[in-house]
């Protein structure tokens, strides 16, 4: 069994695990970890890597579980994030083929961060053409061999390697690795899964 956390527009490595395994478990009952990919995503902005982060509320402080995390209403983060995504990718080859359905999902009302992330993840898995069974668990398992809940972190150097592909601003900036899967989907479309299948961990 491989165990993943939830992810907000997860990166290439995150979706690579769905490609490489017939079944993946996503834990939504773990104790929530701040400053992680659970509420943060990295996209390719005009000036390079751009972090977009969802402001959240932990109702029980440090003891809050992931499926209890709600959205902060202090700012209109959805509008801001969508503007950043549009600015980053509206000129990509496959943007128009995927953006409307993602828009519809993104702007639906969700009670929790987990609900939003799972809806987006399951949709992106389908659009990428990945055949993987997802098991959502609401009771955290103990740490096991293939437990990646703490490994996939913006604070840790990833050992994931993917083939380079044409990115939006590659004419002015170097290739940025392991961005949100949106980056490869909008740039490569149906070829995205081929790049993921050819990727590996060093």
Can you tag this structure with a few keywords?
202 residues, alpha/beta, three-stranded parallel beta sheet, two-stranded antiparallel ribbon, 16% strand
Please explain how this structure is put together:
The protein is an alpha/beta fold. It has one domain. It contains six helices and nine strands, in the order E-H-E-E-E-E-E-H-H-H-E-E-H-H-E. Strand 1, helix 1 and strand 2 form a beta-alpha-beta unit. The longest helix has 16 residues. The two termini are 21 Å apart.
Question: Outline of this structure?
Answer:
The protein is α/β, with parallel strands linked by helices.
Could you estimate the helical fraction of the residues in percent? Answer: 25-40%
Total domain count: 1
End-to-end CA span: 21 Å
Largest sheet, order of strands side by side? Answer: 1-2-7
Q: What is the number of helical segments per DSSP (H or I, 4+ residues)?
A: 6
Strand elements, count: 9
Order of helices and strands: EHEEEEEHHHEEHHE
Estimate the mean pLDDT confidence: 94
SS strand fraction: 15-25%
Using only C-alpha atoms, the radius of gyration works out to 16 Å
As residue ranges, the low-confidence spans are none
Biggest sheet descriptor: 3 strands, parallel
Structural class comes to: alpha/beta
- The gross shape turns out to be globular
């Amino acid at each position: 069994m491989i165990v993943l956390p939830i992810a907000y527009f997860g990166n290439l490595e995150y979706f690579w695990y769905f490609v490489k395994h017939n079944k993946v478990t996503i834990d939504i009952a773990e104790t929530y970890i701040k400053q992680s990919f659970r509420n943060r995503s990295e996209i390719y902005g005009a000036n390079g890597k751009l972090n977009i982060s969802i402001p959240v509320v932990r109702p029980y402080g440090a003891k809050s579980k992931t499926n209890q995390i709600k959205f902060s209403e202090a700012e209109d983060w959805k509008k801001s994030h969508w503007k950043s995504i549009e600015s980053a990718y509206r000129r990509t080859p496959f943007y128009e083929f995927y953006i409307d359905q993602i828009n519809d999902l993104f702007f639906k009302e969700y009670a929790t961060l987990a609900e939003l992330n799972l809806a987006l993840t399951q949709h992106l898995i389908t659009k990428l053409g990945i055949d993987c069974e997802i098991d959502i668990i609401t009771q955290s398992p103990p740490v096991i061999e293939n437990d990646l809940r703490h490994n996939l972190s913006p604070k840790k150097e990833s050992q994931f390697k993917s083939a380079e592909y044409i990115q939006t601003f590659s004419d002015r900036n170097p290739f940025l690795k392991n961005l949100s899967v949106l980056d490869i989907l909008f740039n490569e479309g149906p070829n995205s899964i081929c790049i993921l299948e050819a990727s590996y961990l060093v």
